[in-house]
Amino acid sequence: FLGLSTVITFAENPVLRRAVYAGPKECDEIDKVKAGDKLGMHYTGTIDESSKTGDPGSKFDSTRDRDRVYELTIGYGEVIDGWDEGLIGLCRGAQAILVIPPDKAYGAKGAGDIIPGDATLRFDVEVVSVSKPPPVSDLFIELDVDQDGLLTVEEIHAHFRRGDPDAEMPPDLMEKDDTNQDGVVSREEFEFGGPRMPKDMCHEMLFLHSQPNTVGLAIRWICERRDSPVEPKIEERKIEGEL
Length: 243
Fold this sequence. Notes:
Mean pLDDT: 82
Radius of gyration: 23 Å
Low-confidence stretches: 1-13, 227-238
Structural class: alpha+beta
Order of helices and strands: HEEEHEHEEHEHHEHHH
Strand content: 15-25%
Number of strands: 8
Largest sheet: 6 strands, antiparallel
Number of helices: 9
Distance between the termini: 12 Å
């Protein structure tokens, strides 16, 4: 009823396709899916009619059969590319069809015994809930043990020793963050000096590196800065072949 099979059948190079068939197509930003959001989803997955492999129309999975919403974080590689790209921009309450070519699904390997290699997949999805990522915490207050508004080398070093008591600070940290070279890092230096990272990238990196190891703690040092002047820039991906 959406004409998706016809479009894919006659496409020489199948692409990711999406069609919203119920629910809102426009919504406020708070209800629109963006990278980093936690979603609650219902879905039914089948082998698409256009697939060169598998049994067209056969169902391989459905949350509705289990009567249980599937929760995921979108945009960070937690799910197949076809979902990471195809769900961006949908509204809470939207119901849509995604037709996902093999290179954005499970590729030549497939998935176990239920999805053969090089299969084109069709997902009937519903965005049940959209939760925005938590705000970036204030690391400065957390580290400023004596609450004097300054971070000493000892206070900063304690941060990097959380995962390993013998860990050292990055050798150039004070050079980059202590901009007036007085031996301490002030609130202003912490927030506006040193290396920067866009907040949307920070959310992704904090998600991927949540463990208190050298990389994770270094990312926290860069990212967890209150009132950062760098505004989030989230790219709204345009789905090639959107119907």
